[in-house]
Design brief:
single chain, rod-shaped, mainly alpha
């Protein structure tokens, strides 16, 4: 996963994911705490993702109007955009919107947010499996000690 901006939860997970073999009871009791912590982060990042999708829909509509010449001079000025003097065919409109710098920037941000959500989903899966991992460690220690 390539992220430009560092997220504190990525660094936190590097520490939180560790299971200390000498403190298995403590590690097991941390599972609900970790689940709660990363679930809240997941919800926050999901909300951000949904906001970006809504922003994309609005921007896409505005850019469609812009490239089809349906935005007034005042609207263009309010948005800080130059007036579009191009005559674009309906069949070309989608290509112009998708290749617009503002749309590309927002699309990239959405894709990055998708990666963050996927990362958090993987963290939550690991937390769900944590008790099984701890049980396997205990079983391995018992086996190793001949019990």
């Amino acid at each position: 996963m390539v992220l430009k901006k560092k997220h504190s939860f990525i660094e936190e997970w590097k520490n939180d994911c560790k299971i200390d073999n000498t403190k298995l009871e403590e590690s097991a009791s941390l599972t609900p705490v970790l689940h709660s912590k990363y679930w809240v982060i997941y919800l926050h990042q999901s909300k951000k993702y949904n906001s970006l999708l809504a922003e994309y829909k609005k921007l896409s509509l505005l850019k469609s109007k812009y490239y089809s010449g349906r935005l007034s001079k005042e609207e263009c000025e309010n948005l800080g955009w130059d007036i579009n003097y191009l005559k674009i065919l309906k069949t070309e409109l989608k290509s112009y919107v998708e290749s617009d710098d503002d749309v590309i920037k927002l699309t990239t941000e959405i894709e990055n947010q998708k990666q963050i959500i996927k990362y958090l989903e993987d963290i939550l899966k690991m937390i769900h499996n944590r008790s099984f991992l701890i049980k396997n460690i205990i079983d391995w220690i018992k086996f190793k000690d001949g019990q």
